[in-house]
């Protein structure tokens, strides 16, 4: 299934609950007076439904057009556009757009990070990347200040289950 995105970020995961369940939840009083065991059973059912939907989505296509999605400013001169989040594998794919002169502070990678420079140039300490260059930063590694003199468009995938092999 191909899903077009509007200005808000939308995925198949937004359709996890059926209309009847959503109506029941919207009609429910603010404070529910149910036993803890019942609350856990309801939570387990909802989480199972989400997990099933995520598994089904993994077998579906997703297309994000160039003009779709929202660019979110995450730092001065740096914007991020989320392409896909997979809750099962704890991975996230996104684009970063850095204007000329943009800088990001030193940071430690919580997860493996795959970085492919699509346009422009990007520098981490003594590592200089140009369009077409790939860079892998394993979980626990630390980058110094990242900066670009000319600007850059970068595809990034982070997560616990990223690709671990070198070609």
Note down, in words, how this protein is organized.
It is a single chain. With 167 residues, this protein is of the alpha+beta class. The protein contains two helices and eleven strands. Strands 1, 2, 3, 4, 6, 7, 8, 10 and 11 form a nine-stranded antiparallel β-sheet that branches. Strands 5-9 form a two-stranded antiparallel sheet. The longest helix has 22 residues, at 36-57. The radius of gyration is 20 Å and the shape is elongated. It starts with 18 loop residues before the first helix and ends in an 8-residue tail after the last strand.
SSE order and pairing:
Elements: H1 19-27, H2 36-57, E1 72-75, E2 78-86, E3 91-98, E4 103-104, E5 107-108, E6 112-124, E7 127-130, E8 134-137, E9 142-143, E10 146-147, E11 152-159
Q: Identify the overall geometry.
A: elongated
Strand content: 25-35%
Q: Give the H and E element order.
A: HHEEEEEEEEEEE
Give the CA-CA distance, first to last residue: 31 Å
Radius of gyration: 20 Å
Total of helices: 2
Roughly what is the average pLDDT, rounded to an integer? 78
Q: How much helicity do the residues have?
A: 10-25%
Please report the total strand number as a whole number: 11
Structural class of the helix and strand makeup? alpha+beta
Uncertain ranges: 1-14, 161-167
Largest sheet, in brief, is: 9 strands, antiparallel
């Amino acid at each position: 299934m191909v899903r077009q995105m509007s200005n808000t970020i939308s995925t198949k995961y937004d359709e996890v609950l059926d209309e009847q369940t959503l109506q029941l939840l919207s009609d429910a009083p603010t404070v529910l007076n149910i036993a803890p065991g019942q609350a856990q059973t309801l939570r387990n059912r909802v989480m199972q439904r989400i997990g099933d939907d995520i598994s089904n989505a993994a077998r579906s296509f997703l297309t994000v057009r160039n003009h779709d999605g929202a660019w979110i400013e995450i730092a001065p001169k740096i914007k991020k556009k989320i392409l896909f989040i997979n809750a099962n594998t704890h991975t996230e794919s996104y684009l970063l757009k850095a204007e000329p002169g943009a800088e990001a502070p030193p940071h430690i990678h919580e997860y493996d990070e795959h970085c492919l420079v699509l346009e422009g140039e990007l520098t981490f300490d003594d590592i200089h990347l140009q369009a077409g260059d790939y860079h892998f930063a394993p979980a626990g590694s630390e980058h110094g200040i990242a900066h670009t003199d000319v600007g850059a468009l970068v595809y990034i995938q982070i997560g616990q289950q990223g690709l671990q092999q070198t070609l």
